[in-house]
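Annotated sample (chain length 168).
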Amino acid sequence: MTEEKDAYPEQCRDHLEKMMGSFIPRILHLENLMNDITSRHFSSGDERGVLFFYSLTPQMSFKKRIDMFLNMLRIHFNDIYRTYEKDLKKLHEIDDHRAHLEQRMLNITENVLNNRDDRVQCTGSKNGKSFTRETDNKEHERKIRLCSQVTTALKIIQREIILRAYHS
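Output written by the structure step:
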């Protein structure tokens, strides 16, 4: 059972590549962004690197970067809808991909809740120098809210998929 679960992203990728051709680089790009968000901001508080967004928008707050990411997700799915709006089977397959992203965010939220502590130590490096700092529950609350934003957006995208599939 675990092997199947671990193999899902590769199977999903292969299937989507056959199904969508030129869309696959954008899907992989979104998955890379999601991995950046999860590993660098939501998992253990490790700050080894900087999100892709930071290089593009250094003046933006983290919340704005998340909003930008959510907009990219919506644009990505909308482009696919336009291409496949008459094909119910493919819309269901696209929704499976959306559900996979949503499940990932739910898992991250659960990890954040399980790793909760009064004080959380974060380690990382900046400009080649290591650092350690402590954060409090407010940072965990912020991470949970941001995870919640992403899962809510993915649920809205799901509703859009259903509406397009059955009312096109």
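Annotation: Residues 2-167 form one domain.
Annotation: The longest strand covers residues 119-126.
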